[in-house]
């Protein structure tokens, strides 16, 4: 079964394809199916933003579409950057710029608890919808560590592994990450949906 994944992020596409392929789901990017849709993320929650993207891609491609919206929620920043994680600090910043800004914002903070949250939404051409969520608890490191991953991975420290996301193997990360957990929950719902 082919699904269009509503993302332009190659890291996210690779990560989600690896997880979903184990369940026989073929994932295509919008570009692979000749679709270019720019969806404005006007939702106030990860779930709302994910569904906005899934519905728009599904309508444009005529295929089931999966979208996720995820972000880093830092307790000392009142849950920020949250839904603004990808836009934190403005348009001009890359991943390194965003996590550097985050570390600067955290300077002097003793409370460093944080979590990654992920909401997955799937829209089908017949109007059916599926949703799932996942989260991973951790803390904000005092300095970036590791070369892997993307986004805030170098500064998101997972105490149970004593490593940042950027120091984990792809397999380790997908096993315990917010996206891995949300996808596992999503796949369960998808299997139930297919049986019906």
Description of the structure:
With 196 residues, the protein is of the alpha+beta class. It has one domain: Alpha-Beta Complex (Maf protein). It has helices spanning 10-21, 46-61, 95-105, 170-176, 178-195; strands at residues 2-5, 26-28, 65-74, 80-81, 113-123, 129-140, 156-158, 163-164. Strands 1, 2, 3, 4, 5, 6, 7 and 8 form an 8-stranded mixed β-sheet that branches. The longest helix has 18 residues, at 178-195. The protein is globular and about 50 Å long. It starts with a strand and ends with a helix. The mean pLDDT is 92.
Characterize the largest beta sheet: strand count, sense, and whether it forms a barrel. Answer: 8 strands, mixed
Work out the helicity level: 25-40%
Structural domain tally: 1
The residue-averaged pLDDT reads 92
Under the CATH scheme, which class? Alpha Beta
> Which percent range describes the beta-strand content?
15-25%
Architecture, CATH level 2? Alpha-Beta Complex
Structural class: alpha+beta
What is the approximate shape?
globular
Radius of gyration: 17 Å
Which residues sit in consecutive blocks of at least 5 with pLDDT less than 50?
Answer: none
Tally of DSSP β-strands: 8
* Distance between the amino and carboxyl termini: 16 Å
How are helices and strands ordered from N to C?
A: EHEHEEHEEEEHH
What fold name stands as the CATH topology? Maf protein
Distinct helical segment count: 5
Brief account:
Helices cover 33% and strands 24% of the residues. It is of the alpha+beta class and 196 residues long.
């Amino acid at each position: 079964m082919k699904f269009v994944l509503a993302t332009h992020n190659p890291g996210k596409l690779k990560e989600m394809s690896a997880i979903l392929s184990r369940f026989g789901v073929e994932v295509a990017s919008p570009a692979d199916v000749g679709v270019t849709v720019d969806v404005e993320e006007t939702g106030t929650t990860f779930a709302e933003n994910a569904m906005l993207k899934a519905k728009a891609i599904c309508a444009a491609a005529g295929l089931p579409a999966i979208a996720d919206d995820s972000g880093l929620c830092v307790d000392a920043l009142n849950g920020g950057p949250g839904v603004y994680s990808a836009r934190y600090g403005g348009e001009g910043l890359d991943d390194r710029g965003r996590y550097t800004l985050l570390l600067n914002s955290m300077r002097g903070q003793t409370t460093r608890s944080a979590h990654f949250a992920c909401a997955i939404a799937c829209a089908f051409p017949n109007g059916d919808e599926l949703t799932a969520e996942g989260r991973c608890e951790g803390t904000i490191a005092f300095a970036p560590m590791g070369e892997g991953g993307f986004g805030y991975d170098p500064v998101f420290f997972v105490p149970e592994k004593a490593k940042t996301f950027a120091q984990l193997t792809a397999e380790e990360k997908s096993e315990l990450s917010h996206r891995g957990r949300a996808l596992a929950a999503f796949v369960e719902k998808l299997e139930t949906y297919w049986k019906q």
